[in-house]
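[#protein-structures] MJ: dropping 4-hydroxy-3-methylbut-2-enyl diphosphate reductase here for a structure pass
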Amino acid sequence: MTKKRPLEIILCAPRGFCAGVDRAIQIVELALEKYGAPVYVRHEIVHNKYVVDGLREKGAVFVEELDEIPETDAPVIFSAHGVPKSVPANAQERKMFYLDATCPLVSKVHVEAQRHHDEGKEIVLIGHAGHPEVIGTMGQLPDGAITLIETVADAEKYEPKSPDDLAFVTQTTLSVDDTAAIVAALQKRFPTISAPHKEDICYATTNRQEAVKQVAPHVDAMVVVGAPNSSNSMRLVEVAERAGCPKSGLIQRASDIVWSDFDGVEKLGISAGASAPEELVNEIIDRFAEHYDLTVSTEVTAEENIAFNVPRELRA
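AK: finished. structure tokens for 4-hydroxy-3-methylbut-2-enyl diphosphate reductase:
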């Protein structure tokens, strides 16, 4: 029997599920327990196929828009990413029983945007076009009230109607460093621009990026467990590359591992996006253990103990 080559795995901590994702999944599971199937969910509850497939097997029905849902008494759940104001308004019109699984840290951004708008400020949202969180935040206010800025170049060519009456908010899952550069460009041009009271990029995004930043320079490759439509997972891949890791990539499941990518790798870092469950991390480690003689350690850069309550209707 050929001797397995040694491989050292360094696990980044924190990694994986955040409080908002945990709460959103709990809302679907508790609704299924309390009301039975079907439970309708508008958009993927969190951006992870394994999680969505698991909930679908339990009786969750995923739709992109409410008009795909027949007349029903069954609960309708809005995803963790948040929704435009038109969505609950439409649900109320149709007398739907809906539960909002929007992450409280996304709701905080919605409240901030509304407050700035009420104060007559012009609002800039730093984020990625087309991401459901961005669609939800922009949909809190009338069309045209929020301008989306994605890059430093956008910030440099942005022409507000009232430069002295500006405010910015951000998507919660952005690269901390990229966002800082965009904010700096805006503040240089518009010194009086109002910033969020407390950072909009959430604690989980920040902590996972910081953990990857610490590990990346000391490993030959970094694997991020997550989905390609998960903004925070994609940012972790970029953070690892920028922190000096020679190879960094996204893996959804153990079956996606391309073994030739790990030729010559002696030290491997592993992290997971905020919507990736720990069982997928374990599945990937187990698969590496079949091919290598593993030693596994964990690098802890922060402790997390945040939890969010589920809606009143679901509390025991």
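MJ: nice. The radius of gyration is 21 Å.
AK: one more thing. Residues 163 and 190 are 6 Å apart (CA to CA).
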